[in-house]
Amino acid sequence: APASASESLWRLTDLAARRVAIADQVAAAKYGTPSPIDDPVREQQIYDSVASRAPGLGLDPADAVRFFRAQIEANKLVQRGLYARWDAHPAEAPTTRPDLGQIRPVIDGLNTNLLTELAATTAVRASRSCPVRQRVAADVADLVHRFDVLHAQALGEATSATCSE
Ligand SMILES: C=C(O[C@@H]1C=C(C(=O)O)C=C[C@H]1O)C(=O)O
């Protein structure tokens, strides 16, 4: 049977939540190193990849890029929030430093799955019920992922560009 609107919107939201959660590892990889939170070159690579794959999935490239802009802003919101937390409370700072080179391929995989689900949700994202469905899905994701306020805010940002009307 085809996935229901709620199922597909849930899958999209859960993927966005996993992308928000992985920002913890990105922040831990960069904190205390010269690598900046913002990497415009890496961001542009993602936007170019998304824009080139969108038409093959029936998506408007500009719409797909707008969605990913929200994912990336959400990721950086988490990184900045964690930096502030770790600066204020050094005891909470990570004690091991993950390798960004191992995290980015995971993000690439999430990006691919997000693009697939973005295409699968085109109808529900254009529906009048989208904002309510999206809010419910984000609230459930906050619970499932045990998000604190910072990560819940980031998921709110990540899902702010989901509904197309
Ligand atoms: C996640 C990273 O940090 C930032 C956020 C990005 C993203 O969400 O994909 C990409 C580049 C950086 O601006 C990273 O450097 O990989």
UniProtKB/TrEMBL annotation:
The keyword Signal applies. It comes from Amycolatopsis plumensis. This is chorismate mutase. GO terms for molecular function: chorismate mutase activity. PANTHER family: CHORISMATE MUTASE (PTHR38041), SECRETED CHORISMATE MUTASE (PTHR38041:SF2). Gene3D superfamilies: Chorismate mutase (1.20.59.10). It comes from the Bacteria. Coiled coil: none annotated. Pathway: Metabolic intermediate biosynthesis; prephenate biosynthesis; prephenate from chorismate: step 1/1.
